[in-house]
Design brief:
By secondary structure, the protein is of the alpha+beta class. Helices cover 37% and strands 17% of the residues. It is built from five helices and six strands, in the order αββααααββββ. α3 (99-106) packs across α4 and α4 packs across α5 (129-145). The protein is globular, with a radius of gyration of 26 Å.
Length: 189
Amino acid sequence: VGSREGTTSTRNHRRLSSSRSKHTRVQGVPRVVMGKKSRKKSAEKSTRKPTAGLAGAAADDYLVPVERPQVAQGPILPHSETLRAKLAQLAGLAQANDRAGFVRAFVPLDLSEADALAYLGDLTTGAEAEGQWQNLAAEIVALASGQGVTRIEGDQVTQAVFFFAHPLLLSCDREVAFVCVGGEWRAEG
């Protein structure tokens, strides 16, 4: 079993590394450059034998860099001074680890007291409280600084929707909406 798969993988590895015209190295990682493909006659059968995946092959011969969405140069901050002030307040509460103060300033105004307390419980004593709090705090600090924000939609007078790359989780794009009710910015519920 090992010798046959090893032979096929080695053969594929040799084919990949010897064919410089079809593969180029980008920052130490081979990148396949697609060219014109020839068509086989339908009567012909392929002589390639299927392999059992990539087992036994050099893993870096199959890796291709993944491009992230283009992030604008510099931070993207909202135009609204009141929204910037709210985000700064929330970021300060998050950095001070004031979870109760953060929840009071963050949740929608129409959220019941019982629901607000339940949310605070999720962030303080819930099974995943620490991870949830760290992720939320990192997101708010990122929004306040504008780092990783790709765009802000909405009029930024009554509504703002932030699109950004999560600061702690790789390949996790997030969207957070805020609404302004009676001059007070809150998370959209």
